[in-house]
Amino acid sequence: MPELKDRAYWLEKAKTLRLEGRAFIDGVYVDAHSRATFCTYSPIDALPLAPVALCASADVDLAVAAARRSFEVGVWSGLAPRERKSVLLKWAALLEAHTDELALLESLDSGKPIADTTGGDLPGTIYCLRWFAELIDKVHGEVPATDPRFFGTVTHQPLGVVAAVVPWNYPLLMAAWKFSPALAAGNSVILKPSEKTPLSALRIAGLAVEAGIPAGVFNVVTGDGATGRDLSLHGDVDCIAFTGSGKVGREIAKNAAASNLKRVWLELGGKSANIVMADCPDIAQAARSAAAAIFANMGQVCSAGSRLLVQRSIADQLIQELLDATDDYQPGHPLDPDSVTGAIIDGVQFERVCEYIEIGKQEAQLLKGGNSLSHIESGAYLEPTIFLAKDSSARIANEEIFGPVLVVIPFDTLEEAIAIANQTEYGLAAAVWSSDLKTIHTATRQLKAGTVWVNCYDELVDMNFPFGGFKESGNGRDNSAHALSKYTELKSTIMRCG
Ligand code: NAP
Ligand code: MG
Fold first, then answer.
1. Whole-model pTM?
2. Does 489 score more than 80 pLDDT?
3. Pair 239, 292 in one domain
4. By three-state DSSP, how is residue 245 classified?
5. Could you give the CA distance from residue 72 to residue 64 in angstroms, rounded to a whole number?
6. Ligand 1: centre distance to CA 130 (Å)
7. Residue 467 has what DSSP assignment?
8. Is a pLDDT exceeding 70 seen at residue 2?
9. Does residue 4 have a pLDDT over 90?
10. Is 213 in the same domain as 288?
11. CATH code, 319
12. Which of 150, 165, 186, 344 sits 20 to 30 Å CA-CA off 87?
């Protein structure tokens, strides 16, 4: 009989987990040079989980030196692409073999439901790593037509030392979106996870060594924002790839400019509009999808459908269906396999979301939720919350809340809906629901967003599609073959042959 993975199973397993909190530099786990540590907490109960190395500039210097050394000697950058592929595939197989352990670490450290980490974060991470491993021996350069006395090539070369600074909402997955293409392309990588969720990144570093990734090629420096800042200012880091807030993204861009003009890639926030036209093919499905779009992962999703724009004539019906669908997203204990949503990452984020709920009560009509829940555990749990706004001027209709808060905005015409959708500084994602080809075509062309869904939301998680934003949602794209270009330089080689 297969083991029953109920809450008791995960709680029991949690007791036996060894939590590695040391940084990973040059192929080994090490304490910070100063021996300083900070604590990572579990959002499940707000209790301390483990002490973690607080890396300062001295540690960042060591990691950068190890990455630089490994890059220049060519232990990784100098391998044939198919040799790198083989090692990355071994690493992916090890991650798969450790799915339960890694998913549990992720749920403990981030408060995400175990069903999500086992069913989404881990498979997504492994898929991403495999996809870039499989891609790398199928990449070609170019041979342009030239004057016959010359022969020239355009080739891709790795950048060198790539720093990846990532957030806490999908700790492993966001890291994999950076390190998979960067490593596949032959770079050496320094990963800086969020101080709120460092444990899964540290654990996979040990598995990288087991897979055969040479010392110095994959490093993890743990710490707070200052550790990320040290990477952004470092003169020997060639590229910094960042996912997080616009505020920090701006600072990283400034620091890159002030130091060595390292390449900067930013995946930032969003306030994505989900537009439902009156000729939507299935209102009940649009309502279910709208609930999932905002309440999954407790709304802590950069591409969350946080604005639901509904054509006035169907607003009452859609809202009724939405209120019913929202009942499926009541938080539960994150280690209960039936829980669809879990805890908010920490008290700071919880307070921020609660402030927005108070603002929402002043400027819009509260339709559902808005309360914190104390019956689950001592962590921060919030009811899924829905506001109905009179128009699109409310703060809650424009600012990223990054929590389980949806604002519904009625509109009259498609032009109005597109104008509202495009009015924020962001441009990460959008969706339109309609049965009319002309409406769909107009909307998909005019919505300023890196991803536009039609008659669905958040569907087709497929590495072939680039992910990233227009406007202040960032630059560059994660995923797809386009992401490789972020981690390579183009080289033109021109030979006189005659
Ligand atoms: P954040 O505060 O910007 O932090 C992101 C990362 O940057 C963390 O590792 C953080 O370290 C580090 N950091 C903080 N200050 C830094 C500095 N001065 N220099 C360099 N690094 C620094 O963002 P967050 O609160 O973790 O994540 C939420 C934000 O990320 C939201 O705005 C969300 O929309 C965005 N996001 C975007 C995407 C996307 O793909 N577009 C995906 C997920 C999330 P510490 O955590 O240790 O302070
Ligand atoms: Mg934590």
1. 0.97
2. yes
3. no
4. coil
5. 12
6. 25
7. B
8. no
9. no
10. no
11. 3.40.309.10
12. 165
